[in-house]
Design brief:
Blueprint lengths: L8 E5 L2 H4 L3 E3 L1 H4 L9 E6 L4 E9 L2 E4 L3 H7 L7 E6 L4 E7 L5 E2 L4 E4 L3 H4 L9 E4 L1
Parallel strand pairs: 3-7
Antiparallel strand pairs: 1-6, 2-5, 3-4, 4-5, 6-7, 7-8, 9-10
Length: 134
């Protein structure tokens, strides 16, 4: 059995009415989380971008809160899409988005633009590779 097969995971259907500003983590999944929750986690999209999101506990329920709305907006989440979350056991969730048709999509992708050696002499080391959000 591969290590990735034993990492805690869950899925949920996105509904903007309930999930636009915060996201309730299913109670049955919460039992697999460490009892001392990290204050923030990193959501890693399959497009290479990441978001820092606060975890909050309210009335025995756990939510993704501050930062979640940015994740929703930048991934242009739509009603009926399925999100899968795979927790690395520490602070990181790998998040995949599936359309209503069942296909996995890449959203909020980052693209690295490489500059050829001929033009690189005109730039400092910090500007040779720039990251562009698509």
């Amino acid at each position: 059995m591969a290590l990735s097969d034993v990492l805690p995971r869950f899925f949920s259907v996105f509904l903007s009415q309930y999930n636009s500003n915060s996201f309730l983590i299913p109670r049955s999944y919460y039992d697999h989380l460490p009892r001392r929750l990290p204050k923030t986690v990193i959501l890693m999209g399959n497009g290479g971008k990441s978001w820092k999101v606060a975890m909050k506990s309210k009335r025995d329920q756990v939510y993704f809160e501050q930062g979640w709305a940015n994740f929703v907006a930048e991934n242009e989440l739509r009603d009926g899409e399925v999100l899968t979350f795979v927790f690395d056991g520490h602070r990181c969730y790998e998040v995949s988005i599936y359309t209503r048709g069942g296909c996995k999509e890449t959203r909020a992708a980052i693209e690295v633009e490489e500059i050829s050696d001929e033009t690189a002499s005109d730039y400092s080391c910090d500007s040779i590779v720039s990251v562009i959000q698509v």
